[in-house]
Amino acid sequence: MPTIDQIKAPIASYIEEFEKQFRASMKSPVPLLNTITRYIIKRKGKQMRPMFVYLSAKVCGEVNQSTHHAAALIELLHTATLIHDDVVDDSNERRGFFSLNALWKNKIAVLVGDYLLSRGLLLSLDNEEFHLLKIVSNATREMSEGELLQIEKARKLDIEEPVYFEIIRKKTASLIASCCAAGAASVDADATIVEKMRLFGECVGIAFQIKDDLFDYEKNLATGKPDGMDIKEKKMTLPLIYMLNNVSWSEKRHAMNIVRNHNNDPYKVTELINNVNKSGGIEYATAKMLEYRQKALELLNTMPLSDSRSSLEQLVLFTTERKH
After folding, report:
1. C-beta separation of 241 from 159 below 8 A
2. Quick one: which of 57, 312, 77 has its CA closest to 185?
3. Dihedral angle sign, alpha carbons of residues 58, 203, 78, 97
4. What are the tens digits of pLDDT across the range 155-175?
5. What is the mean pLDDT of residues 179-192?
6. pLDDT of 11 higher than 70
7. Do 25 and 119 touch, CB atoms closer than 8 A?
8. Domains of the chain, first to last
9. Least confident residue range of 120-129, 173-182, 204-213
10. What is the CA 38 to chain-centroid distance, rounded?
11. Exposed (0-12), middle (13-18) or buried (19+): which is 155, by Cβ within 10 Å?
């Protein structure tokens, strides 16, 4: 399996330029904001979103200034949503760093999220790139809807499989879909190609989220036991939904009782994880993940062969074979 740096090779110079432009897009005359945005830049992750933007652009044409704007716009809006998520979840940590609300309290964190949101909107408007703004604004709307749908359904724990897929399509896949669509749109690809790249990203995003679901049932390298974090947070994931749909009424009632009332009891959580494994839920979710990955690769294979297409294929494999 290639490393992220190897996958990034055809667009490495563009990612460097992106980092400069992303830093510049956050600048403010307010010193506190600059201190906080420097902290945000320091804790960046694998940069998978910009990679999807640039590789999609290169598959469809030549990277240009509009592509840099698309990557910065998505990263600004995404960072804003993450900051707001940490406030809503009362989370003190993200990617091993303290969250903004842990360091600067909720009020400042919310205002910084709002500021980044406004910078993203202005970046598009100042450059009259309304098509990019439309793509990314749609994704932001869908992410909010997905999050709210999940909260609504979590109260009753009545998520059926079609609702689960609707939640992850909106909450997770819409962002990767917007990266791929914005990359294609930035190089003036026609509407059918932009839509094809959007669908490609959506399939990758769904596969990515199912892979995340599966981590809950895999052994933690440090403890040798599954974490069961999603169960502790009362999240209905695909392996669990499959089990609930394929056991007797009394077993289903027992499992729901653990999620509702004993989700912090390690023995009960382990019992539920073992039951999900026995039910075939892991195999079912893995098969679904591979099905969406295959759909993504089939869409990508209709594009001309190039180094960028190969890297995009490797990025799809990376998202579904990663270890964390």
Report:
1. yes
2. 57
3. negative
4. 777 778 899 999 999 998 999
5. 93
6. yes
7. yes
8. 4-202+296-321 (1.10.600.10)
9. 120-129
10. 23
11. exposed
